[in-house]
């Protein structure tokens, strides 16, 4: 039988998980991807907000509506050659007495790739099941809840406006180009319309899923060896206690409880 037992009900577990997730610092990542003909580089920062707790025996903490608030800084690289055909100025050749045939050099125009910067903020929500784990690492017992499986993400309403934000940013970049700027802006918006919201979620999903898929929630930690004072009084000698084992589980009686037990030796 364990020497130490600590238990909280579902209401207290909500507060415990809220505090634990609130203590997780903001996370960040960067990388590259693609959106149709656009080459995308990005940097993302995200913070987590806890959802509602559902304790389920024997060892599952269910969380509904876990929220990831995120800010993305994009750079969309767009090769103008996908819209404008490359062309070459024709060579002109003349025959010069005593010199022979002389031709002008062949000059070809290769359209550049332009960068379209976009900043965007929104949130995604997910439901997830977390399994309780107790581990000993470097002399510290840790109780954590690790997500099980890969949750599906529900994007906020503002995500649908990302295409509009890209189109507006593209217009600012392309409009100053003489003669063809407005045409290019219209062409880019036509491409974005064809990509649609499915393309946006296909871009954002792999970027944001890692913030949830590997999530571990720290619930409690304690040194394996620590000193305690006997309850008789401060003049009694300190006692060194070793935690030999820790277990975490969900127990169901008249209500669901999150229970942590410890076996100790002096």
Main beta sheet: strand number and arrangement? 8 strands, antiparallel
What is the tally of beta strands?
16
Q: What structural category arises from helix and sheet content?
A: alpha+beta
Order of helices and strands: EHEEEEEEEEEEEHHHEEEE
Number of helices: 4
Radius of gyration: 30 Å
Gap from first CA to last CA: 16 Å
Dominant shape = elongated
Mean pLDDT: 87
Range of strand content: over 45%
- Unreliable parts: none
Helix percent reads 10-25%
Provide a compact summary of the structure.
With 266 residues, this protein is of the alpha+beta class. It is 22% helix and 52% strand.
Q: Which terms summarize this structure?
A:
266 residues; alpha+beta; 4-stranded antiparallel β-sheet; 16 strands; 52% strand
List the topology elements.
Elements: E1 4-9, H1 10-22, E2 27-35, E3 38-49, E4 52-56, E5 60-79, E6 87-89, E7 93-96, E8 100-103, E9 107-109, E10 113-137, E11 140-148, E12 154-155, H2 162-174, H3 181-208, H4 210-213, E13 216-223, E14 225-228, E15 239-252, E16 256-265
Antiparallel strand pairs: 1-16, 2-3, 3-5, 4-5, 5-10, 6-9, 7-8, 10-11, 10-12, 11-13, 14-15, 15-16
